[in-house]
Amino acid sequence: MNDYHQPDFYRFNQDSIKLVNRIIKSITSAKCILDMGAGSGIIGIELARILKSSELDLLEVQPEYLPFLEKNVSEQLLTETKAKIVISSFGEWKPSKEYDLIVCNPPYFLPAQGEPSKDERRNIARSFVKDSWAILLKKMEDSLAPEGRAFIVVKEDPKVISEIKKFVSLNMKLTQEGKLVFIQLSRLNID
To answer: How far apart are CA 180 and CA 27, in angstroms?
Structure first.
């Protein structure tokens, strides 16, 4: 993994790398990628590089990530890929196109779950302090191309999986690897 710029309050972990590896085993190309909750942009940038995508949109809720996203796009992304950074909550974001691939390593705690941090920025990155699963999944569905796929990685947690299942109307495939669950969504049947 390349050297990425990241804030001190929240660093990417192996979940991001495992999600990238899972996706490249499932698909071989994606012209237009959306990374929802992009953080420092690591997942989206790596996939855009590997899949040689022409467009990458990085949607991030927290404005504190903007300088890191800008540096990482500038230093890590291939010049052939057009990148757009959007700082917005999922609920306020208005998709202007459909995406072949949507990726998300979302907050992995439900509200009032887990040990809260003294740093509110870290809490936002770890929990749905802003938005919700319902909003995230609706925006994902609204912006997925007819033959596109979406991939989400979450920690193994029956409450989180139940929450996701409540709001998904797309075809869904769950794959567990250790304590991680990879969720693939598509309008088409998933093998």
So the answer is: 20
Residue 52 DSSP label: T
**Domains and their CATH numbers in the chain:** 14-178 (3.40.50.150)
- Nearest CA-CA partner of 104 in 30, 23, 10: 23
Nearest to 160 by CA among 117, 105, 116: 105
Q: Which of 109, 107, 105 is nearest to 157 (CA)?
A: 109
Q: pLDDT tens digits, residue range 59-72?
A: 999 899 999 999 99
Reported pTM: 0.89
Q: Any bridge partners for residue 171, and if so which? A: 186
Q: What confidence category does residue 73 fall into, taking pLDDT thresholds of 50, 70 and 90? A: very high
User: DSSP H helical segments within the chain, as ranges?
Assistant: 14-26, 42-51, 66-76, 120-126, 133-143, 158-167
